[in-house]
Amino acid sequence: MSNQLRKIRRNGAKKLVKDFRKTMANEIKQKFNMFDRIPEGCMICNTPFDRNSKEMAFSWKVFVKQDEIRLYCPECFEKGEKMVEKLKEMKDGV
Q1: What is the DSSP string of 32-62?
Q2: Distance of CA 18 to CAs 6, 10, 71, 76, Å?
Q3: Using CA atoms, how far apart are residues 14 and 25, in angstroms rounded to an integer?
Q4: Around 93, how many Cα atoms within 13 Å sit in the side-chain half-sphere?
Q5: Do the Cβ atoms of 56 and 49 come closer than 8 Å?
Q6: pLDDT digit string (tens) for the chain, length 94 residues
Q7: Residue 71, SS3?
Q8: Single pTM value for the model
């Protein structure tokens, strides 16, 4: 009896692992499909984005909200952060 229970538990664990791997593979496929939809340049200043540049890949900011992808160069992103900080300071000061 204990051998059968062990076998059932083992098969259940195998099924869980298999389902988890399938789910992760689907999520990864979805992320890779979105890579083709990245804009050609910055959403604010239209500076071109070189997809083959490792430096740009690590310094530019990409935001994904549902099916919309936004790409920002480091300069525009920094300006945006400063604006947000100023707005917070103004709000706290009032």
Answers
A1: HHHHTT--SB-TTT--B--TT-HHHHHHSEE
A2: 18, 12, 35, 43
A3: 16
A4: 6
A5: yes
A6: 678 778 778 888 888 888 888 888 887 777 666 667 788 899 999 999 998 889 998 999 988 887 788 999 999 999 999 999 999 998 887 6
A7: strand
A8: 0.59
